[in-house]
Design brief:
The chain is mainly alpha-helical. The chain has 8 helices and 4 strands. A hairpin with a 2-residue loop joins strand 2 and strand 3 (50-53). Helix 2 (59-73) runs parallel beside helix 5 (122-149), helix 2 (59-73) packs across helix 7 (185-205) and helix 3 runs antiparallel to helix 5 (122-149).
Length: 239
């Protein structure tokens, strides 16, 4: 046990036990995912001579919350959140396409700005959806398996290790799918590796916050979930 009030429990035994904060964490996961893609994705920024997409400052927070979900509530509940985020992103893409495609009213001068911010190509939208889906599941799977193998020790190693894999899968899929043939091979590789390293570094810097949130939620929920016999298929949403 982590402390006297926290019970170690296998994920299969959790069943329908009431969870006080799961809904809030799930909502935070989906909100950060949507806003980092909606607000941050369209802007390039340069700091210290390094150019990057502004969304990179906030998108890794989704992986931090994904780590919290898996660590505290187990893989099955994290899987439900990934599917919720995937469907929300799909709806966001559809809504953006419809709103941009609607003819502007006479005299309204904002169409160009809307197209610039929300008019992503379907290739980029497709790449983003596939990369998020695969990367989040890889992140959650690695974290859950490492937790069992380490018997719940070394949280920092699990969160950073799972992010190395999850963000690696995300970047490896997104940049070639979105930009291969439009950028040179060298540009695709450079941006892919640079953004992966920045995301992993951001996760490492946030480790103390991850520790604080995980420990607080475990104490409040009174449980510490281990995925001993979990079915790790991503192709289901039920618990």
């Amino acid at each position: 046990m982590i402390d006297g009030a926290v019970q170690k429990i296998d994920a299969d035994a959790l069943g329908g036990r009431p969870l006080r904060y799961f809904d809030f964490v799930m909502a935070a996961f989906v909100v950060i995912l949507l806003l980092s893609n909606l607000i941050g994705a369209a802007k390039l920024s340069t700091l210290g001579g390094v150019t990057f997409g502004a969304g990179i400052l906030f998108f890794p927070l989704g992986y931090v919350i994904g780590d919290v979900l898996t660590e505290v509530y187990g893989y099955a509940r994290a899987r439900r959140c990934v599917w919720a985020g995937f469907v929300a992103m799909l709806f966001m893409a559809l809504m953006s396409w419809v709103v941009v495609a609607l003819p502007p009213a006479p005299g309204w001068a904002g169409q160009g700005a809307y197209e610039s911010v929300f008019g992503n190509t379907w290739r980029i939208v497709f790449a983003s959806l596939i990369a998020f889906w695969a990367g989040e599941f890889a992140n959650s799977f690695v974290l859950a398996r490492m937790k069992v193998l380490t018997q719940g020790r070394h949280l920092w190693m699990r969160t950073i290790g799972s992010t190395v894999v999850g963000q690696g899968v995300d970047s490896l899929l997104f940049y070639p799918l979105a930009f291969y043939g439009q950028w040179s091979n060298a540009q695709v590789l450079t941006v892919m590796v640079t953004n992966w390293a920045m995301k992993v570094g951001w996760e490492a810097l946030l480790t103390p916050i991850t520790y604080g949130v995980v420990n607080m939620l475990k104490r409040r929920e009174g449980l510490d979930v281990y995925d001993q016999g979990t079915n790790f298929t991503p192709f289901r949403a039920r618990l």
